Amino acid sequence: MPSNANPYYFAPVSRVARITPNMLRITLSGGDLSRFVSSGDPDERLLVVFPADGENHPPVPQPIGDTWDYPADGPRPEMRSFTVRHWNSATAEMDIDFVVHDSGVAVRWALQARPGQVLGVTTASGWYRPPDDTAWQLLIADMAALPAVSRILEELASGIRVHVIAEVTTAGDTQSPETAGDVTYTWLHGTGNGVGPSALATTAREWTRPDGPGYVWFAGEAGLSREVRRWLRHGLGWSSERYDVIGYWRADKEAWTARYEEVRGQIEAARVAALTAGGDFDSLRDAVDAAMDDAGL
Question: Which residues does UniProt assign to the signal peptide (predicted)?
Fold first, then answer.
């Protein structure tokens, strides 16, 4: 038997609520969540394991070596990455918010979710790390990242200065959680989120930055994340400890994946060349980003 604890946690749905026109909240309670340990990061992400169509419970992983997993040569359940919107260790309850859009395994499941159905989740981790000397923060998010932004704001210490630039599907999808921070907002409606070009990067560049050392957190479409990172690293000349930029999802994923497979060799060659040159992690990311840009990815 494996020596490590099973890293998958299965728990039943206890509540389903539509919190905005295009956001559903699924609450899981009990089950394996009695042993779940939060990473403590307000933007913590984990994989959600979905049942097959017509099933109420995802398949259970098997002991493989010294851990638990699904066999590589067999069917694997559908999994997608999500933010832990809220975790209550006292009641073993977890909220996960789902963006409602046109297609996808996750949204199809969420739209039919009922109490008693079971989801699986994995261990969680996050990225939000403002340096101790941060005088102000800029949080940039689309709908997929709004749950993380909301939890960050809820957990702010008193007086922390934060501006949020958020791109939501409709004006009804805005969310302003209770916070002890000094928080202001710029809401963008009807752009990005798979319905058209995003205005997040342009709006962030045009926003007047306060004096003092800042910190920027971005999460959203993966291609846009490269644009935002390039602005912070090269446009502003910031060092990487002053920002965290994460790609949560990818537009036109099937077409992107097909193109990536065609040019995988040249992107890998760029990565190897950067490693051979002895550059740091950020230089490596620059080289890979440039290769992906050249390949039209």
Answer: none
